[in-house]
Amino acid sequence: MPDAGALERYAAPRALAEALELLRDGDATIVAGGTDLMPQSHSGKARFGSLLLNIRRIAELGGIALEGDTVRIGALTSISALLASPLVRERLSILAQAADQFASEQVRNAATIGGNVCNASPAGDTLVPLIVLDAAVELAAKAGGGIETRTLPLQDFLTGPGRTQRRPHELMTAVRVPLPPAGFVARFYKHGTRPALDISTISLGIGGVRRGDRLERVRVAFGAVAPTPIRARAAEALIEGRALDAAAIEAAAEAAHDEVRPISDVRASDWYRQELVRNMTRRVLAHVAFG
Amino acid sequence: MSRSVEIEFRLNGVVRRAAVRADMSALAMLRDVLGLTGTKYGCGEGECGACTILVDGASLNACLLFAVDCDGREVTTIEGLANDPAAQRLQRAFAEHGAVQCGFCTPGMVLQAGRILARAGQPDRATIQRGLEGNLCRCTGYKKIIDAVEAAAKERAA
């Protein structure tokens, strides 16, 4: 049996306010789909707090809605629900591409976008596309008599493997994604030994607004090459607003190779990851530019 | 945690109550508390699909689901499909096509194949293969399983 640690209580509130009240007492372990928490608790990587707080019955945390120029994706949205959403498929297609390559149907049915973000894995499948899309994380906390929310860029929210800026009394309530401008194109690529159920050796997302043979507002993001998913700003700068010919693509691929700092682990060596970064940047960039 | 949590849910069409530890998986509850051993423990981390069950109609890995989260939901295991015509077609097709060798992955395969067939009338082989990507089989090499699912789809159409 997994080590239950200090686990004393279980709660499955239906209202956000109730969940935030419970979080105010501190020392809670939050569960939604359970797909990360269960294996982490079995392996001893995660220890339970005194309260297991199941947020899956809180209707306020579900749903995908267009609010002005922002797509608000509730934290409880499953990966399957992302795939089924016409709004996500048509307007945030790079996120749908990543959702399509996410684990297996059984896992996609349970796993949530909020869980994938808060688990903060360097290889988290939704994180790279969300960074390409300039996504922000919405957090809520009980303050005085009301609920206080704050929003911060996903890039800043992620601070290390399994670490985020979420405070213990806060709950992540949604991802907010600004609608990409007209002409925005983006591609996600994930490298692993098999298509399904593999943790990325590296993943990358490239996006930008296509104007003739140029890309503007360029985003190049990588997963599994640093403690958090990162943007490759040197590579971005080399292609921003310039004609995307073979030489520009080569220069950006070389810059990306030089600016990532991967580790060696069971999936690949640091050297191999850097080679992948260069070769896949070249391939995906050509696809975005000419595809 | 010494204190257990009381839950109530519909299991294979029958309302069941159970007292479970908050950190227990749905798989452990099904097998060790409720005695339904058709759902198999393979990897315990969502990689193999041997523990596939349906919860509110969607397929999930029971090893990743907290038992307490079954509260108020509709759970179907392979035992619950014994008299289901679609599952019986799959069962026959698996037997006729040699899609069962050691049999350990079969309950999960049949449940997941049922989901694929429920979505698409006549899925092609690539669709079947993708739908089964969360279910590992270490014996058959998958070809016979895909043959069987294809045959069950054809039989239904006939």
What is the element layout, followed by pairings?
The complex is a heterodimer of chains A (291) and B (158).
Chain A: E1 9-11, H1 16-24, E2 28-31, H2 37-43, E3 51-54, E4 64-67, E5 70-74, H3 79-84, H4 86-91, H5 93-100, H6 105-110, H7 113-119, H8 127-132, E6 136-143, E7 146-153, H9 154-157, E8 158-160, E9 163-164, E10 171-178, E11 184-191, E12 202-211, E13 214-223, E14 230-231, H10 233-239, H11 246-259, H12 270-290
Parallel strand pairs in A: 1-3, 2-3
Antiparallel strand pairs in A: 4-5, 5-10, 6-7, 6-10, 8-9, 11-12, 12-13, 13-14
Helix pairs in contact in A: 10-11, 11-12
Chain B: E1 5-11, E2 14-20, H1 26-33, E3 52-55, E4 58-61, E5 74-76, H2 85-96, H3 106-119, H4 125-131, H5 143-157
Structure description:
The complex is a heterodimer of chains A (291) and B (158). Chain A is α+β, with helices and mostly antiparallel strands and 291 residues long. Chain A has twelve helices and 14 strands. Chain A has a five-stranded antiparallel beta sheet. In chain A, strand 8 (158-160) and strand 9 (163-164) form a beta hairpin. The longest helix of chain A is centred in the C-terminal third of the chain and has 21 residues, at 270-290. Chain B is of the alpha+beta class and 158 residues long. Chain B folds into two domains: 5-80, Beta-grasp domain (Ubiquitin-like (UB roll)), CATH 3.10.20.30; 83-157, [2Fe-2S]-binding domain (DNA polymerase, domain 1, Orthogonal Bundle), CATH 1.10.150. In chain B, 35% of the residues lie in helices and 16% in strands. Chain B is globular. In chain B, 49% of the residues are buried. The model of chain B has no long low-confidence stretch (mean pLDDT 95). Chains A and B meet through helix 2 and helix 6 of A and strand 4 of B.
